[in-house]
Amino acid sequence: MVELTPKRIAEFIAPFRVEPGKRVRLPRDFDPSGTREQSKAEAKEILAAGVGLLAEYQERLAAQDNYGVVMVLQAMDAAGKDGTISHVMSGVNPQGVQVSSFKVPSSEDLDHDYLWRYAKKLPERGNIGIFNRSYYEEVLVVRVHPQILAGQKLPPRLKGRDIWKRRFREINDWERYLSDQGFRFVKLFLNVSKEEQRRRFLARIDLAEKNWKFSPNDSKERMFWDDYQKAFSEVLSNTSTEWAPWYVIPADDKPFARVAAAAVLAHTLIEIDPRYPKVSAEAKAALLAAKADLEGQAPKGAAPDPIEVELTEKAARKAAAPKVAKKPAKKPAKGKKS
Ligand code: AMP
Ligand code: MG
Q: What is the pTM of this model?
């Protein structure tokens, strides 16, 4: 098993981070096929180690119960958002994770400010909320298709050309407010190439079990590829901040993308460094009083505290085990005189 140290994770994800204030131009600045040659087997191994690490940190996040994590996934169609979600979360407790997928807004959504429906889906403290698409659609699909903005019920004087700059500011402010409230952001742009998208669309058409994933609208959206690249470039240039930086994940290789996504989440959890709460002296005393009471209720012949017996035995086995393992394996132990 690969050892996943915080340093190794930080180094692994550094090339994907969008430095706040940096102007990004896609596809020039980030290569969808990735910067490192990484074998599928190694990627899988790191993912396995990463998933174990995520599970432990998630439990601590829930126990500490003051920070929360919002993971935002944005991408072109077929970039692998769904697969990333299921793989990244495969080891964690479903009770601590909420996945929200955002589609075309309902008429109730349109009757409110644009952040309203996203605010309703924010995770509780102690939890991880995954946004499969997000409020960033409000500066992506809505920008690429002016008729969507036309259908939003904003007063006309607020629909001017400065609307995108304003929305970037509003999104940055909202994320800053939330991070001041203890919510950390993991913003991932899964960066797939146009040719790889074509391949994946064809797989969805040619393989019967993938047909359900394809809609003819997907190929229509593909015709706006360049507009989306521009809109994404603007998003990355304007909304990568110290409190909520973007990561551009090379997504042409699915296993690699999953490892990278898990690594960014792991990095964020390591930074939070959640701890199990310490029990106060009073609470400890109360525990011991309850223990004495329960021990007093032991039926005849039963150990007063069978758990304590098990723990003592387990500790003894553990203490004995390393000694055996440390012996040189050259000679069989049998031949030894004691
Ligand atoms: P999918 O995620 O493939 O099921 O598709 C969801 C669809 O909803 C996509 O075509 C998105 O562009 C669209 N969508 C998501 N959020 C918004 C939004 N805020 N305004 C308009 N369309 C959206
Ligand atoms: Mg779709």
A: 0.88
